[in-house]
Amino acid sequence: MDILIAVTREMFAPTTAAFALAAIGLNFHFGLTGLLNMGHAGFMLLGMYGYAITVREGGGMWLGLVVAVLLAIGFALLLGWPTLKLRGDYLAIVTIAAAEFVRFLGRSSVMKNITGGSTGIRGTDFKEPFESLSPFPDALITIGPWQLHGSASTSWWLVLVSWTMVAIFAWVFWMLAKSPWGRVLKGIREDEDAVRSLGKNVYAYKMQALVIGGVLGALGGILWSFGNAVSPDSMGRPTTFWIWTLLLLGGAATVFGPILGSVIFWAAIVLVKQLAALLIPETIMSTTAREPFALILVGVTLMLLVIFRPQGILGNRRELAING
Amino acid sequence: MTTTIDRRVIMRAIVVFLLAATAITLVSVMLSDSAQATDVATHVVSADTSSDDASTGATSNTADNILWLQSLVNGLAFGTLLALASVGLSLIYGTTGLSNFAHGEQVSFGAVLTYFLVTPQDVSIPLIPVSFNIGLPLLVGAAIGIAVSAGTGWLQDKFLWAPLRRRGVATVQQMIVSIGLSLALLNFIQWWIGGGRIGLTTSSGKAIDFGPFTLTDTTLISLAIALVCLGGVSWFLLKTRLGRATRAVSDNPALASASGIQVSKIIRLVWIISAGLAGLGGILLALYEGGTAFDAGARLLMLMFAAVTLGGLGQAFGALVGSLVIGVVVEMSTLWLPADLKIAVALVVLILVLLVRPQGILGRAERVG
Known about the structure:
By secondary structure, chain A is mainly α. Chain A has helices at residues 2-11, 14-32, 40-56, 61-83, 88-107, 112-115, 128-132, 156-177, 180-190, 192-197, 202-227, 237-250, 257-279, 290-308; strands at 140-143, 146-149.
């Protein structure tokens, strides 16, 4: 019973929503346009740095959001400029390198006064403006079997805001994907040269997709940091790979794929860890081994998905052939 | 594939190297200014950035060592060891078109397996609740480690990559499979060996003074082994029938197949060699750096990609040159920048190379988009 509560709680947790939002961003890149962005965690990290540093320096919440969005746009333009003309795997290597560069720079001792070095930025430095907007009381609230705080950190307030944002951007994705603009993107994914021969500026379209997806990644990063803190080492390569796994699990190029994928992914990780704790004795699998064990399953899931069901749960096989 | 390293190639390498050095100097000047402005006490030799001559070596620990020369030697040593890992990555890319993201874990695996075999402490295997003590001598352990590493290459190709190629799975799809594999292996190794830092030997080697620079005897022996192996691979690629066949597959698999080369066997061989070299590289790097960890290879992966891209994707000798350049750039960067920005510098080089010359130093000019 406790397991069930923990699993369902994870399903609507703000972290799940943050990853769903970031995955919607990746869906613009990969699902619609076929761009292999392997540095999505870099966008998330830039977003949370932009927001948290602005707020810490007294810039206020809205300015923080603007700075985060601008950083993401700048990063996307910088990344896209040299690489969008190159073959798919070059973009993959450059994005992963750039994301790691952001992380290494952020956690280096040179930047300690700005980004807080490897320890990052504590929640108390930047969460206050957002939490003070909360209409909920400043105490633990129990709804059904779940208990969360009203407004601090992983709170009902954050749950409400983050899932509202996911809903809004899922709708935006749906509207854009069925618009003429979205059809051009899908055309680029299927056959770049054909679209080019129709007189479309493929490079500009790819860049627009990269920017929009990157901004969503940054927003997802901000939501994530509200539930946790700004920590560069949580936004390394594995994070990008988790987003890929959950996007492919739910189904790329679909509206609800990223959301369903995120819910299943995080629920499954909690389920595996809890079941391992319950069923496998301590002598065989120690407490510290449960996390790696769950993540091994993530890696294996990613492999099996790509090999046997690249369209995921909701996708259409004919629509989505991964061919770079 | 270029068989001879001609003068033009060397000129190109020097140009890229100078570009990278200029970029690093620029970045470091900017960073050191901001560092002084924010009054961060770093261990950077920031005094040197004002003068063009960095060879004053005022902060060197041993008085007679010239700082930049020591860094250069360290860089060449590190680059040689890195080359062991990146040559395999490049060979796999050349023959199959796969950017293998799980190659870093191959490197960790070699080192961790050797630790498992040689450590005098109690060790255990995941899911088996018995801890035991193996404690083999280092040489025997390393030999078994390399052999098993090479075996994993065979195993991977036989049961994973060859079936995928037969199904006609696109290389981009295979790349994502390798990412999944890397995630699974990384966490498996963490589960197996834990999150802490582990040392293959207890001694850190005896320092030998060469006048202007110092190296430990462990490093010298590692370098000798690495050079012999790299020479062996070069000899294999250039002089033997199988090596020529490998280069033919690299050049044009369809044509190679049509001229009677068994492409799938060549690829199997390449996987075995690459995984074995990666294992050896992991062991030697663990000795060189005085320890290893479950994510040692994952940290190196971006350096390997930088080296391979710099040399030209799929060019085995390019990976060699690229590794040396990356090793030197990374080590020399510590003269101006704090050591925790080492890898970031290599990533900047990688991005710059893709901007200026996406086909790398040794790659032929061709359309890659």
